[in-house]
């Protein structure tokens, strides 16, 4: 009950930011504390990033909400996430996708396994976590309706836009230390919209930044 009350409080904070009700409902249904180490549980519903091990963090809830809002994930969609982390962002997207599926790529094997365990604990079955180089996307399941990148890329990567369906959307932070968040829509080429400054850990891989 304590966690439920904290989660409800977080949802009300996010509502003040103008987040859509469908995203708020998805976030209400995902127990964020199950996606952070137990030592961080008391902070799980605070609106800031938390350490999850391996030198990585779970994004602040407002950032997850904003990115999901931009993507406009709908029931039945096939979605790709780059940078699975602890699995929380993928879990929220899975709620939005409903009968669809989320594929999440994580370059750190230990973190990928952590995400799998967390998703299982949360009872979420429509997410597949794959260990690999997210800068290359996940071509074996392409094309995707939506692609979310939860780490900073050096550019809007053609390896990812090539894996989008026509009409599909990509959200990606671009930059090395401070980034601009872009919404990219695949219609008659690529429509690119800057959505504001953000800070993410770097995307490591062949098309990303060196480790």
UniProtKB/TrEMBL annotation:
Keywords, comma-separated and alphabetical: Cytoplasm, Methyltransferase, S-adenosyl-L-methionine, Transferase
GO cellular component terms, semicolon-separated: cytoplasm
Record CDD domains: AdoMet_MTases
The protein's name: Protein-L-isoaspartate O-methyltransferase
Biological-process GO terms, alphabetical: methylation; protein repair
Predominant subcellular localization, coarse grouping: cytoplasm
Cellular location(s): Cytoplasm
Source species: Candidatus Methanoperedens nitratireducens
Domain of life: Archaea
Pfam families linked to this entry: PCMT
Similarity comment text for this entry: Belongs to the methyltransferase superfamily. L-isoaspartyl/D-aspartyl protein methyltransferase family.
Classification via InterPro entries: PCMT, SAM-dependent_MTases_sf
Reaction it catalyzes: [protein]-L-isoaspartate + S-adenosyl-L-methionine = [protein]-L-isoaspartate alpha-methyl ester + S-adenosyl-L-homocysteine
Annotated GO MF terms: protein-L-isoaspartate (D-aspartate) O-methyltransferase activity
Positions of transmembrane segments: none
Function: Catalyzes the methyl esterification of L-isoaspartyl residues in peptides and proteins that result from spontaneous decomposition of normal L-aspartyl and L-asparaginyl residues. It plays a role in the repair and/or degradation of damaged proteins.
EC number: 2.1.1.77
Enzyme class label: transferase
Active site: 59
């Amino acid at each position: 009950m304590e966690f439920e009350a904290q989660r409800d409080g977080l949802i009300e904070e996010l509502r003040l930011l103008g987040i859509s009700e469908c995203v708020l409902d998805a976030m209400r249904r995902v127990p964020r504390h199950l996606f952070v180490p137990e030592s961080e549980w008391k902070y799980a519903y605070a609106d800031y990033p938390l350490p999850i091990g391996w030198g990585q963090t779970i994004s602040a809830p407002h950032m997850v909400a904003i990115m999901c809002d931009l993507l406009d994930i709908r029931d039945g969609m096939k979605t790709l996430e780059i940078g699975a982390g602890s699995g929380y962002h993928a879990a929220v997207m899975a709620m939005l996708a409903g009968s669809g599926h989320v594929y999440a790529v994580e370059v750190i094997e230990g973190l990928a396994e952590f995400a799998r365990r967390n998703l299982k604990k949360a009872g979420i079955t429509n997410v597949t976590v794959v260990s690999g180089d997210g800068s290359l996307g996940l071509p074996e399941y392409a094309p995707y309706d939506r692609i979310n990148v939860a780490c900073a890329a050096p550019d809007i990567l053609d390896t990812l836009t090539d894996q989008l369906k026509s009409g599909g959307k990509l959200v990606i932070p671009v930059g090395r230390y401070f980034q601009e968040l872009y919404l990219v829509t695949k219609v008659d080429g690529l429509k690119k919209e800057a959505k504001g400054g953000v800070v993410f850990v770097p995307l490591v891989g062949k098309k990303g930044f060196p480790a």
